[in-house]
């Protein structure tokens, strides 16, 4: 059986200023797709909210002002120039953007797209931060106010003989994300992110932001025998300093390629999809070694008696 490989790229973006016209942003993203394709990539991953500034970092009271950041007619009205480049270069891409539905629902969304159109859509499930402004914080994280909880599950789609799933930013910190994809046979998890260096409400982790970024994705990749492609929006964007660290991570947990800047940067690696199969035949043979019947209600909410603030 001939080996299944594909050359993939994480496309890291530097800041997208609030003042940046949409055509300039698209020109940047198209140029980066060509750079990736020139390096042999046929599959590329852009960051979360790759078309705009990360606007949950500040309070926006006026709904019409807020809606300026959301796409109403994705993909053709939003990323047509990228689709044309994708068709020209035979590339499939994954991209994050803010979505408003015809019914007015708001989501932090990512889609798989090729030159013919949209292949799959995912809406972010794990929304960090708050719904309301935190007056003492040096920057806001208002995703709970600006997005609904994702309602499309964790879809897995066949792309170039690979089974591809999506997650967005904070999703990568939760083991359930990778396991739900792995249980559907996903071999690649695409994860765009916008992650500030400083976390207003837990400053003790500020020295660990980079470490915990890679820790989360490496653990997810290894414990679920999948490739993880993490793509950052990096640098100081509208006053908030964000980490880079875009990386391509193997089912072994090894980082096989990573960004070294906090600007636009293309990170390329050849992905051996059969490594997933080898790990799933041995170390993580779910059928032979895993015992879900003994795990009890692991998906239930934690006991309210626990001393932790519990949602639900
Ligand atoms: N951003 C951050 C992330 O999960 C965060 C929020 C940072 C949560 C650090 C916890 C610790 O990477 C988004 N957009 O989810």
Automatic annotation (TrEMBL):
A Pfam family annotated for this UniProt entry: CN_hydrolase
Residue span(s) of domain CN hydrolase: 6-273
InterPro entries membership: Aliph_Amidase/BUP (IPR050345), C-N_Hydrolase (IPR003010), C-N_Hydrolase_sf (IPR036526)
Keywords for the protein's UniProt record, in alphabetical order: Hydrolase
Protein name: CN hydrolase domain-containing protein
Annotated source species: Gulosibacter sediminis
């Amino acid at each position: 059986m001939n080996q299944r490989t594909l050359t993939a790229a994480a496309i890291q973006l530097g800041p997208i200023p609030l003042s940046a016209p949409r055509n300039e942003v698209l020109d940047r993203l198209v140029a980066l797709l060509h750079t990736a394709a020139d390096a042999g990539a046929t599959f590329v991953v852009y960051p979360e909210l790759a078309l705009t500034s990360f606007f949950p970092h500040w309070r926006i009271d006026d709904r019409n002002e807020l809606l300026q950041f959301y796409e109403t007619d994705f993909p053709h009205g939003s990323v047509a120039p990228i689709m044309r480049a994708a068709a020209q270069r035979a590339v499939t891409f994954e991209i994050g953007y803010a979505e408003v539905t015809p019914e007015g629902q708001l989501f932090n969304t990512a889609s798989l797209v090729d030159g013919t159109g949209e292949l799959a859509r995912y809406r972010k499930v794990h929304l960090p931060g708050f719904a309301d402004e935190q007056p003492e914080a040096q920057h806001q994280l208002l995703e709970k106010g600006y997005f609904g909880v994702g309602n499309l599950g964790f879809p897995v789609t066949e792309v170039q003989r690979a089974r591809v799933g999506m997650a967005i930013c904070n999703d990568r910190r939760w083991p359930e994300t990778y396991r739900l994809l792995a249980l559907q046979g996903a071999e690649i998890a695409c994860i765009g992110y916008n992650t500030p260096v400083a976390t207003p409400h837990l400053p003790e982790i500020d020295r660990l932001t980079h470490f915990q970024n890679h820790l989360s994705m490496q653990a997810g990749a290894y414990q679920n025998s999948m490739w993880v492609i993490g793509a950052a929006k990096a640098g100081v964007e509208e006053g908030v300093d964000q980490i880079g660290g875009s990386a391509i991570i193997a089912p072994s947990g090894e980082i096989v390629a990573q960004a070294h800047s906090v600007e636009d940067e293309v990170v390329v690696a050849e992905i051996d999809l059969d490594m997933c199969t080898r790990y799933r035949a041995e170390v993580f043979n779910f059928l032979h070694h895993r015992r879900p019947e003994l795990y009890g209600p692991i998906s239930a909410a934690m006991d309210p008696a626990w001393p932790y603030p519990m949602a639900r």
